[in-house]
Amino acid sequence: MELAVKAWVFNPELRGHMVLVSGRDEEGDKIHEVGTVAQVIGDQIEVIVVQGDEVKLHKYKLHEFSGEERLALEVYDQPPTKLTLPDL
Hints:
mainly beta
């Protein structure tokens, strides 16, 4: 029995995780964004990024994370920690 890879895809369990996308995109622009994965569709992820009072949706294809000048994807898999500050 032969085993072959038909296509690489993102893990659908990334949905809802906080991620850091950094490096250079296909146009050569520097990227450094922290956001939440809103959707995983095969070889594409959609990341919601809040910048100031703007909310942006960025779409990244899997091939953007391979090669010499590529993006890197870091996934924060720990649940959020609730912190309280003392009264000042």
